[in-house]
């Protein structure tokens, strides 16, 4: 439970109440994000990061 503070403005409305994006806008955003992150996704993992990911994949005893 959260307290209200009179000196703070109310929090913004949750994202779930925002108007949905049209399919063309979603497609445009998706294409631009894929283009922006293509190099990052194609780059090899850092060895330390790869070791951490492998640790996460192991089942806990």
Structure explained in plain terms:
The chain is mostly helical. The protein is flat, with a radius of gyration of 21 Å. It has a domain at 25-57. The two termini are 35 Å apart. The longest helix has 20 residues, at 23-42. It is built from 2 helices and no strands.
Quick overview of this protein structure:
The chain is an all-alpha fold. It is 51% helix and 0% strand. It is flat, with a radius of gyration of 21 Å.
Return the average pLDDT rounded to an integer.
82
Largest sheet report: none
What's the total helix number? 2
Helix fraction bin: 40-55%
The secondary-structure element order is HH
Radius of gyration: 21 Å
Set out the fold topology.
Elements: H1 23-42, H2 47-57
What are the key terms here?
single chain; 61 residues; mainly alpha; 2 helices; flat
């Amino acid at each position: 439970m959260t307290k209200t503070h009179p000196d703070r403005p109310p929090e913004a409305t949750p994202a779930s109440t925002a108007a949905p994006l049209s399919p063309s806008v979603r497609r445009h955003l998706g294409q631009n994000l894929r283009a922006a992150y293509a190099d990052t996704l194609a780059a090899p993992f850092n060895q330390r990061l790869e070791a951490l990911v492998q640790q996460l994949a192991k089942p806990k005893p």
